[in-house]
Write a structure and sequence with these properties.
By secondary structure, this protein is of the alpha/beta class. Helix content is 35%, strand content 18%. The chain binds pyridoxal-5'-phosphate. Catalyzes the transfer of the alpha-amino group from S-adenosyl-L-methionine (SAM) to 7-keto-8-aminopelargonic acid (KAPA) to form 7,8-diaminopelargonic acid (DAPA). It is the only aminotransferase known to utilize SAM as an amino donor.
């Protein structure tokens, strides 16, 4: 009998991997903040015993309530008893309507209409199409590019990929395929003092950045539909934290040149940075907002695009060769199971016994405390924390397999990338579980990189 990991290697393709890449662990269970992993083989070639590790990644930032949560499971089961899925063309259902009510109630001001998509990348595609349709409907059909930030990440589909960082993203590999957008520098790094709550950044660099964004918008004013950015925290492009005032600059520039402002809150939404949506750090409302990842509490794939009345009504008005309809409609959009479990997740986030701000501020404190010893390591260039995000950045690229294994040996599952070993723990982690994560990160980095 070939074992699971060999069969995986023979048959499956893993993210950003060659066919046949070796995986080292399989998951046989998950509960609370823990994954139960089975390692490949022990040193005698025997299957090793399962190990229970704290998931420092929340399964790519989604499983904010941890695993096998009884209320999420029961929401899924209750909806599955009624109907698991129906098409959304010509039909509607209460989980979708209720979810739209709740999302528009908690979203930044003005976002009043919801398109339910089926993954983060798809929601970004929809946002880009909405921006194009918006400008075209207003007669500006020559506008077909966006401003994106260097260091950004917005997904892997072709449209979304074209807005990712042009150097570290996949532009080099897909140069002939991706539309060419306008790239602004990313705003300079900032940090928020955990004691005073004040944000600090280099004000000269910030002024240079703001002037450059304004210049690019002005130079390309007749070509641009929108500006797209991950507010305050650029995630998969490098875990870069920047000053919320940058969002105000983006808002002004968009107003000045008639661009839509698209915030990609797929990573930052649902409390992760310490505000429910990261846009709230600056009190700025975008015209279009993408959400995903933690929307369903990490149980299913789902995403959404929220827009203002102005955007919805302009796109819905026929004219200038545009049909007056949003031209998108995934088969599994508004999946009832996903909507029902999203509602249950929102309810848990606002549970008065354990409201999300309390969980995230406890996480923030524990991450500050637990990761700061890493500052003393030779290999470490920077340690930064914002809300439920903790990052240890090295001087050199992380030895990913070695650090992953060393962290598992210390009881935590991490998935570093490039120069960053980072964590976004489930909000349900207690202090001991966060301490396990931070000790595993510091210990693994020291063991592997010194
Ligand atoms: C993960 C992510 C996406 C892509 O979402 P998928 O569900 O993986 O398609 C887009 N934008 C940001 C900011 C993300 O973190």
């Amino acid at each position: 009998m070939p074992d699971l990991l060999s069969e995986d290697q023979r048959l499956l393709w893993h993210p950003y991997s060659p066919a046949g890449a070796e995986q080292f662990f399989s998951v046989i269970g998950a509960e609370g903040a823990h994954l139960h992993l089975v390692a490949d083989r022990d040193q005698h070639g025997r299957g090793a015993a399962p190990r229970r590790v704290v998931d420092a990644m929340s399964s790519w930032w989604a499983a904010v309530h941890g695993y096998a949560h009884p209320e999420l499971n029961s929401a899924l089961n209750r909806q599955a008893e009624k109907f698991a899925h129906v098409m959304f063309g010509g039909l509607t259902h209460s989980p979708a309507v209720e979810l739209a009510e709740q999302l528009t109630a908690v979203a930044p001001e003005g976002l009043s209409r919801v398109f339910l998509a089926d993954s983060g990348s798809v929601s970004v595609e929809v946002a880009l199409k909405i921006a194009y349709q918006y400008q075209a409907a207003a007669g500006r059909t020559q506008r077909n590019r966006v401003i994106a930030l260097r260091g950004g990440y917005h997904g892997d589909t072709i449209g979304a990929m074209a807005t990712c960082d042009p150097v570290d993203g996949m532009h080099a590999a897909f140069d002939a395929l991706v539309p060419k957008h306008v790239f602004a520098p990313r705003p300079p790094a900032a940090r928020r003092c955990p004691e005073t709550g004040e944000w600090q950044t280099d004000t000269d660099q910030f002024a240079v950045w703001a002037a450059e964004v304004r210049r690019l918008a002005s130079d390309h004013r007749d070509e641009l539909t929108a500006l797209i950015a991950e507010p305050v925290l650029q995630g998969a492009g490098g875990m870069h934290i920047y000053h919320p005032e940058a969002l105000q600059v983006m808002r002004q520039v968009c107003n000045e040149y008639g661009l839509l402002l698209i915030f990609d809150e797929i990573a930052t939404g649902f409390g992760r940075t310490g505000t429910f949506f990261a846009a709230e750090w600056a009190g700025v409302s975008p015209d279009v907002m993408c959400i995903g990842k933690a929307l369903t509490g990490g149980t299913m794939t789902a995403a959404a695009v929220l827009v203002t009345d102005d955007v919805a009504s302009t796109v819905s008005t026929p004219g200038a060769g545009m049909p007056g309809a949003l031209l998108h409609g995934p088969t599994f959009m508004a999946n009832p199971l996903a909507c029902a479990v999203s509602l249950a997740s929102l309810k848990l986030l606002h549970n008065p016994q354990h409201p999300w701000p309390q969980s995230v501020s406890t996480l923030e404190r524990s991450l500050h405390h637990g990761l700061s010893p890493a500052r003393r390591l030779h290999s470490v260039a920077d340690v930064r924390v914002l809300g439920g995000v903790g990052v240890v950045e090295l001087h050199e690229p992380v030895n990913i397999p070695a650090v992953t294994r060393a962290a598992v040996d210390r009881g935590a599952w991490v998935r570093p990338f490039r120069r960053a070993v980072y964590t976004m723990p489930p909000y349900i982690c207690d202090e001991a579980e966060v301490a396990t994560i931070t000790a595993a990160i510091c210990g693994a980095v020291e063991e592997v990189h010194g």
